[in-house]
Specification:
Helix 2 runs antiparallel to helix 8, helix 3 runs antiparallel to helix 4 and helix 4 crosses helix 5. By secondary structure, the protein is mainly alpha-helical. It contains 9 helices and no strands. It starts with 17 loop residues before the first helix and ends in a 12-residue tail after the last helix. It folds into 2 domains: 74 residues; 133 residues, no CATH class.
């Protein structure tokens, strides 16, 4: 009786270019359009409520309520809650800073300024961390490629890949850097009394919206242009 030949092994799916890898990884990280909306809506609502009512607690409650509604919708649909949780964590940190300011006897304007401080700190840290990865020639985006190829550092052997990943990482840095450069002086001016705190809060609120997802989408547009060329084969950096 002749032996039945064993089925040929199925070749693992491969990704042709670095650009495809990064597009896929960024899509996961941002959660698509819905993930971006879920991350942005609570912050936008907080800013709008503060600017129109000057009621800090009301603005915080409305933003938390919006994040919870989005979270419940995700749970009902049994889909990832990551981006709703991220929004809640961000609001929670802002609320913590507000409470700390209140405990020190800060006015409503001082507390509102405190709400914006975590975002400035976060963007500063993010700018320094990502810029450092570019300056030392180990750009963060390169590790997205490594996570797919199976070797986290093999991509670094290919100068073309390093160059592409460096450009993409700088595009991630720019929005954060611009937010710090624009918002930090306003915050310090309002905190020090060089500018009316109420005026500084209003400006920070408007800028938080203007320099939020619109700026992020502009950076992603630049990344999409670079990624649209599909010209850097993944195979080049796999040993």
């Amino acid at each position: 009786m002749s032996e039945v030949p064993a089925p040929a092994p199925v070749a693992p799916a491969t990704v042709a270019t670095v650009e495809e890898v990064v597009r896929a990884q960024l899509g996961k990280a941002l959660g698509g359009r819905r993930g971006m909306v879920e991350a942005a809506v609570p912050t936008v609502l907080f800013t709008l409520m503060w600017l129109t009512t000057r009621e800090l607690r009301l603005a915080l409650v409305i933003s938390v309520a919006a994040a919870v509604v989005l979270l419940v919708a995700r749970i009902v649909q049994r889909s990832t809650v990551q981006f709703c949780v991220n929004a809640l964590v961000g609001i929670g940190i802002g609320w913590l800073f507000v409470s700390m300011s209140a405990n020190r006897g800060g006015s409503a304007d001082d507390q509102a300024l405190a709400y914006f401080l975590p975002g400035i700190i976060y963007n500063t840290a993010y700018t320094i961390a990502l810029a450092t990865t570019c300056l030392i020639r180990w750009p963060l985006v390169g590790f997205m490629v490594g996570s797919v190829t199976g070797d986290p550092t093999a991509w670094h052997k290919d100068r073309q890949v390093v160059r592409l990943c460096t450009l993409l990482t700088w595009l991630l840095v720019l929005p954060c850097l611009l937010r710090v450069v624009v918002q930090a002086p306003l915050w310090f001016a309002g905190h020090s009394g060089a500018m009316e705190a109420d005026t500084a809060v209003a400006a920070l609120g408007i800028l938080k919206i203007a320099l939020g997802w619109p700026l992020q989408l502009a950076a992603l547009g630049g990344m999409a242009w670079l990624l649209g060329r599909n010209s850097t084969p993944v195979e080049q950096q796999v040993a």
